[in-house]
Design brief:
- It contains one helix and eight strands; from the N terminus they run αββββββββ.
- By secondary structure, the chain is an alpha+beta fold.
- The chain has a single domain, classed as Beta Barrel (Lipocalin), CATH 2.40.128.120.
- The chain has an eight-stranded antiparallel β-barrel with strand order 1-2-3-4-5-6-7-8.
- A hairpin with a 5-residue loop joins β7 and β8.
- The protein is globular, with a radius of gyration of 21 Å.
- The N terminus is likely disordered.
Length: about 130
């Protein structure tokens, strides 16, 4: 009986090890570099190009060479916030939350708040 319990325990441990190493999700995605982002708001698409400068965990977001905000990335998820004054001199905040679909594609939700207006929410997709 002891031998049977020992064998069962050994099989369970081995199965756990195989499952853990065989199905482990990739921990890090390299967000740094240039991303082409399509933002969909109220049925319209807007294309932007953002450059993420820093490391795989956090740094700055650049638009046309200008730093507009910061990002953080962890366990396949990404958050970034942009803050700027638009062409009408209204303070604008864009909050992006999403995840990596692959190492070359991200997607998620965005909320844009322009000073004096209601916030608008939509979706975004980014590719390298």
């Amino acid at each position: 009986m002891k031998k049977m319990i020992f064998m069962l325990a050994a099989v369970l441990v081995l199965a756990g090890l195989l499952t853990d190493t065989g199905c482990k999700k990739k921990d890090k995605f390299d967000i740094t570099g240039v991303w082409y982002v399509t933002i969909t708001l109220l049925g319209d698409d807007f294309d932007e190009t953002y450059t993420f400068v820093g490391d795989d965990r956090g740094g700055e977001v650049l638009w046309e060479g200008q730093s507009l905000g910061t990002y953080s990335a962890s366990d396949g998820y990404v958050d970034f916030t942009l803050e700027y004054y638009d062409q009408d001199d209204d303070y604008t905040v864009e909050v992006y939350r999403g995840s990596f679909d692959t190492d070359r594609m991200m997607s998620g939700n965005v909320t844009i708040t322009i000073e004096g207006y209601q916030s608008v929410s939509g979706t975004w997709v980014a590719v390298r």
